[in-house]
């Protein structure tokens, strides 16, 4: 396992090589961690206390179907939520970003690849795509990251796939995560997801 200094230096690219990335990640710039939890649908008054990853997963199994557990904190100028269970950020990202806030969601999709990226700002889903499927982009501005994806050799200038045939999945994911990391200045040490007890909330997507 890479040490903390390496995790910080690597931003979020290390996620591509971590076989325990099962939790969704939502980042928000412009609000604090507690407000991020509220916008993700935190149930009022349900504060189980600081939880590590294993305790959060155990709590997910005890919640009503459709609920999840979000562990929140702040790192590198962004608030973040580690979303165990059903990731509310996948459905609520535009709501998270209202009022001039920026929000990024990364969903590992372990049971239904590929991993997913989405970016919202000021109440609007700006762009989204699957890692490895960048040629199929959604959102109100699907070409928002096109210059960066072209510069990284992921897409051609006309938006078609430029990846080499047979590119390993980890290399594929790492290149796209590097684009996202640089564009938004994201960094999140591994220990915050894997080991650190963080303030936690039960969230509901309904």
Describe the structure.
Helix content is 27%, strand content 26%. The chain has seven helices and eight strands. An eight-stranded antiparallel β-sheet has the order 7-6-5-4-1-3-2-8. The longest helix has 16 residues, at 169-184. InterPro entries: DUF6461. It holds the Pfam family DUF6461. This is DUF6461 domain-containing protein.
Q: Largest beta sheet: what is the strand line-up?
A: 7-6-5-4-1-3-2-8
Please give the number of β-strands: 8
Gyration radius, in Å: 16 Å
Q: Unreliable stretches, pLDDT < 50, 5 or more residues?
A: 1-8
Structural class: alpha+beta
H/I helix tally: 7
Looking at the structure, what is the overall shape? globular
Helix content: 25-40%
Percent of residues in β-strands: 25-35%
The major pleated sheet works out as: 8 strands, antiparallel
Which sequence of SSEs, written as H and E, runs from N to C? HEHHEEHEEEEHHHE
What is the overall pLDDT average? 89
Protein name: DUF6461 domain-containing protein
Pfam family, one: DUF6461
């Amino acid at each position: 396992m890479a040490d903390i200094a390496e995790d910080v230096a690597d931003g979020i690219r290390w996620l591509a090589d971590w076989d325990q990335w099962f939790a969704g990640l939502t980042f928000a710039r412009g609000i604090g961690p507690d407000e991020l939890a509220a916008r993700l649908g935190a149930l009022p008054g349900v504060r189980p206390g600081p939880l590590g990853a294993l305790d959060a997963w155990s709590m997910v199994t005890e919640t009503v179907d459709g609920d999840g557990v979000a562990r929140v904190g702040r790192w590198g100028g962004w608030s973040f939520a580690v979303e165990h269970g059903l990731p509310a950020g996948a459905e609520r990202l535009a709501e998270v970003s209202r009022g001039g806030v920026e929000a990024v969601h990364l969903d590992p999709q372990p049971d239904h690849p590929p991993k997913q990226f989405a970016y919202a700002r000021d109440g609007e889903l700006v762009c989204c795509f699957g890692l490895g499927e960048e040629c199929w982009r959604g959102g109100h501005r699907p070409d928002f990251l096109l210059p960066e994806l072209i510069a990284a050799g992921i897409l051609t200038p006309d938006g078609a796939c430029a990846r080499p045939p047979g590119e390993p999945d980890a290399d594929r994911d790492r290149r796209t995560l590097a684009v996202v990391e640089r564009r938004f200045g994201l960094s999140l040490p591994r220990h915050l997801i894997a080991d650190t007890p963080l303030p936690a909330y039960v969230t509901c997507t309904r």
